Amino acid sequence: MEFILVTQQARPHVALIQLNRPKELNALNLQLMAELRDALKELDQNEEVRAIVLTGNERAFAAGADIKQMAGKTAIDMLHIDQFSTWDQIKKTKKPLIAAVSGFALGGGCELAMTCDMIIASETAQFGQPEIKIGVMPGAGGTQRLTRALGKARAMEMVLTGKSISAREAEKHGLVNRVVPVELHLEEAFKLAGEIAQLSPVAVKLAKESVNRAFEAHLEEGLHFERKNFYLTFASEDQTEGMAAFVEKRQPVFKGR
Ligand code: HXC
User: Fold this and answer.
1) Residue 42: which H helix or E strand, with range?
2) What does the alpha-carbon distance between residue 38 and residue 153 come to, in Å, rounded to a whole number?
3) Which InterPro entries match (predicted)?
4) Where are the domains of the chain?
5) How far is CA 19 from CA 35, 54, 141, 197, in A?
6) Annotated catalytic, 35?
């Protein structure tokens, strides 16, 4: 592993993964993400491990996907690179994953923190989706998870302006579990992980899966449902009539067929 450090038993039954590209503020290049995926898969299968803490360093959890690696890519390049299959696998981690966040959690960094099950933030943590400032938008769940955590108005403002929020604001709106002094944030994450690690790993795994269901299943089902019904309207005479009336600049006559 070149860009992450893994400690299998950082505390009893608790593993630690540290993102380790400090000079680049832990910018998430493809190799780092692949290493993270592989490490999580291995820890998920290791029976000695019952909870996992993911951290960066004091200055940065992660300042986003690696812009230098993405610059110059075309849409088709991005499609072939298919980085989101790595993110999908990370999301499938069955054991509790706790982010210990200090400093920048921006773009993909904020999305990675939100992909974790819980977030312990240091007082210096800042969360943001600045992609709009570089002519793109969040791609790893930011528009969805931030909106669910903060509500539409606040998420919209963050995503459309690229402005970050402080750890305290994130705590106030339920994006993070709690905020602690910077020197304590990793210890606080270990404490939470350790507490969970004492409980039944089976029940914990199933409970995590269930909470995620409440959080994620509805949206996908909702979108799917909406799309199917949208298509179904095109089987009605009312759709033909409604659109024809618009084009012909007259009032439609709907018959319920
Ligand atoms: C590549 C990055 C980087 C990034 C920082 N660096 N963020 N490299 N990708 N996302 C590099 C800088 O180029 C610099 O290296 C070094 O890290 C230190 O950064 P500085 O900018 O010198 O530090 P500072 O002035 O303190 O500013 C910190 C910062 C700024 C505000 C966080 O670095 C910044 O705005 N970074 C980009 C944040 C961002 O836009 N993130 C979203 C990315 S898009 P050199 O060698 O030049 O000195 C994204 C899409 C996700 O995340 C969707 C798919 C996963």
Assistant:
1) helix 30-45
2) 36
3) ClpP/crotonase-like_dom_sf, Enoyl-CoA_hyd/isom_CS, Enoyl-CoA_hydra/iso, Enoyl-CoA_hydra_C
4) 4-198, 203-247
5) 10, 8, 20, 22
6) no
For 55-90, what is each residue's pLDDT tens digit?
A: 999 999 999 999 999 998 888 888 889 999 999 999
pLDDT, tens only, 9-22: 999 999 999 999 99
Selected from 3.10.180.10, 3.90.226.10, 2.170.150.40, 3.60.15.10, the CATH number assigned to the domain covering 4-198 reads 3.90.226.10
Owner of token pair 């539409």: 152
- Out of 67, 79, 126, give the residue to mutate to test ligand 1, the one with the largest number of ligand atoms within 8 Å of its CB: 67
Q: Which of 10, 131, 170, 193 is catalytic?
A: 131
Q: Is the CB of 64 under 6 A from ligand 1?
A: yes
**What is the position in ligand 1's atom list of the atom closest to the CA of 66?**
9
Residue 171 burial (10 A CB sphere; 0-12, 13-18, 19+): middle
Please identify which of the residues 15, 60, 63, 65 carries the catalytic annotation: 65
